[in-house]
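Bug #77: duplicate submission created two jobs. Keeping one. Sequence:
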Amino acid sequence: MSAVIAVLKRFTVQRNNNFDFIRILAALSVLVSHQFALSGLPEPRLFGVESFGLGGLGVMTFFAISGYWVVQSWQSDPHLLRFAARRLLRIWPGLALVLLLCALVVGPWVSTLSLRDYFSHPALWAYARNLVFDAVDHLPLQFVGNAMPQAVNGSLWTLPIEIQWYALLALLGVAGLWRFKRLWMLLSAVAALITYLVLAPLYLAQPSLFPVGINQVYALHFGTYFLAGATLGLLPFRAQMRHANTALVTAWALGATALALDQALLALWCVVPVTAVWVGTARIPFVYQAGRWGDLSFGLYIYAFPVQQVMIWQFKDRLSWGELLALCMAITLACAWLSWHGLEKWALKLKPNRPQA
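Kept job's structure:
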């Protein structure tokens, strides 16, 4: 027994904040939302808004938390190359592993092509563009009988958007613009108002007026959450508890007002970033220990979709929807744990530190 306890202690860490719990919850919300879509069922929507459901809420939360932490990372060490190295070491190793597993294990297993034809197929080499954050979601395979038979990992399209916002944050930092905290509070609010009161209604009514793809639209949408999180990261949010509580109450009051005015997207923007940071910076018993087994949220996010596709393909006629969901959650959690302890945490040990004065 003592040997088992020793092994478990080796793989636990104490992180002492609630952000791990929130990110895991966000990743699981994306998983649950995709379980509906991949089973051919309508996804749960937020306030009936098309394309913004439970999974969308999870992604909004991810972007808000990302902005909050990344701007603080820049402020603690405003060096462009070290900043870029830290961001890449957090994302790229785990991404590369799941891409290799999909291309070299899942693909040959699911594809009806011979191994020779599979490995010489142009789609396989096009899939490698994901390694440079150019989202491609096609391999020479079909999950026959699935609702989305050609989709491999439909979650990865958000990563190029996040990288774009990392780059913009770094450029603003190089220009020294992040020191104007009140300015960013104003700009963040103005960006959200323009996005949700002007651009979003126009796009929904007349998409032909916008000479951009849907990914650019989502980049702007999720970017408002990243910017809101970054703005909160500039502020001493928890310096005094009353300030955090005032911010939370104000955010929910503004959100309720926006919802009453039939502005659901604006209401979500008012509520989600502040709530995520308020909960994340609190110290809630038990919740703050969610990261003791490692930072599993990224692994949950990038492994869930291919795991779900394979499990639905294999067991859709033998297991109920709920049983399939539980199986997918268990396997995805195992993959995330192995990815963190086998690769991701070791990659993070290579992060460059700021030279000591």
